[in-house]
Design brief:
Blueprint: H1 22-29, E1 32-34, E2 39-43, H2 50-59, E3 64-70, H3 73-79, E4 85-88, E5 94-96, E6 101-106, H4 131-139, E7 143-154, H5 160-169, E8 170-177, E9 185-192, H6 201-214, E10 232-234, E11 244-246, H7 251-261, H8 268-271, H9 288-296, E12 301-305, E13 311-330, E14 336-354, E15 365-368
Parallel strand pairs: 1-10, 2-3, 2-6, 3-4, 6-7
Antiparallel strand pairs: 5-11, 7-9, 8-9, 12-13, 13-14, 14-15
Helix pairs in contact: 5-6
Length: about 375
């Protein structure tokens, strides 16, 4: 198969990144054949996006919509050049529509799960907590029924628990040794089915084989250069994924949204109650009591000038004070009962800044209670 993209991702360790080696990628893709109709494919651990881009090319780029998730910013930026949709972030922080993809290319990170500050690992299984299992649990619901799984993991990860999941969730299971043997990887192929309730002889046989390979009792055959069996048909998509986004917003995405929406500035007047530019006149002239009350409540403020020429910048406010009243009452036995009553009292206060030229209090704050 002629490759469309140059080999930018080699089989080397870079910040914990182990991309699929070229021979394994080419041979695994030879096991696939497209269906008639548009297809959606997903790589939830995409790295630089080479594997899922090659899968799209092998299946027919015009019919494929390729999706990817990658944690590292630099690799995600490169993957965005090769796929149609890419999330930069943690897969556990992504919201992706279930049963939306016909192909799941799953080459997850390898290793034991670490506990967080609360002692949790986010793992719902009962066996050994591994990253490979966590990513399997997270991504299995994303694969549509009859969709194809290509699962690349170290052989020793295939324990009773993981093998049980695979044989319950998939039919037509095949397992081969990866082309590069550095990390003892195996490639598991399967077609998703509804969970089995009954186990037949063929299922028992493949389960036994997977366990023997996982325990090191049996060596898997090397992935053949030419696929010897019936190819796995990647089914057509029922619809485009309704949801495919990161839950917590990326910094760049957040900055873009702030720039687009401009925060609350376009609606500043609405939020601060200043949308009404013209004030309506009162129904009748305000009395001195009304004026004093409105001024003390802060409804009236600004610069005022008296007939004598005095200029004040006034601002009213009201604060609450408590007044105490003590009552005494004689009880039947002759003792005295003392009752203290606290009453809230609202006190209007007007403060004025004297701006009158030549005034003795020029520049001072005058308080009127």
């Amino acid at each position: 198969m002629a490759l469309m993209f140059p080999r930018l991702a080699r089989n080397f360790a870079k910040n914990g990144y182990y991309p699929t080696d070229e021979p394994t990628l080419e041979r695994a893709l030879s096991a696939l054949t497209p269906s008639n109709g548009p297809m959606c494919i997903l790589d939830p651990c995409a790295g630089e996006g080479v594997a899922i881009a090659e899968a799209a090319h092998a299946l027919g780029r015009d019919q494929i919509t390729a999706y990817a998730v990658e944690y590292d910013q630099e690799r995600a930026n490169h993957a965005r050049l090769l796929v149609d949709h890419c999330i930069q972030g943690d897969l556990m922080d992504a919201f992706i529509a279930r049963q939306s993809f016909g192909l799941l290319w799953l080459n997850p990170p390898y290793g034991d799960l670490a506990r967080d500050a609360n002692g949790n690992m986010g793992y719902e299984g009962r066996g050994r907590a591994r990253l490979e299992k966590l990513f399997y649990q997270k991504t299995l619901p994303l694969l549509q029924y009859d969709g194809i799984l290509i699962f690349i993991v170290p052989s020793y990860v295939l324990d009773q628990e993981l093998v049980g999941w695979l044989t319950r969730h998939f039919a037509d299971l095949c397992i081969y040794r990866a082309g590069d043997t550095q990390f003892k990887q195996v490639v598991v192929f399967g077609r998703r089915i509804r969970q089995r309730e009954l186990v037949g002889d063929d299922v028992k046989s493949i389960r036994t084989r997977l366990l023997q390979i996982g325990q090191g009792e049996l060596d898997a055959e090397e992935l053949p250069a030419e696929w010897p069996l019936l190819p796995y048909v990647v089914p057509a998509a029922l619809s485009e994924p309704e949801h495919f986004y990161r839950i917590s917003m990326e910094p760049a995405q957040f900055a873009e949204e702030v720039q687009r929406l401009q925060g609350l500035w376009p609606s500043l007047e609405t939020h601060l109650g200043a949308a009404q530019q013209s004030l309506r006149a009162p129904a009748r002239a305000l009395s001195h009591w009304h004026l004093a009350l409105a001024l003390a409540a802060g409804a009236i403020s600004g610069v005022v000038q008296s007939k004598s020429g005095r200029i004040l910048a006034v601002k009213g406010d009201t604060h609450k004070q408590k007044s105490t009243c003590t009552e005494y009452r004689e009880r039947d036995d002759g003792s005295i009962a003392e009752t203290r009553i606290l009453t809230d009292k609202f006190v209007p206060v007007i403060r004025a800044w004297d701006l009158s030229p030549g005034s003795a209090t020029l520049g001072r704050i005058i308080t009127i209670h």
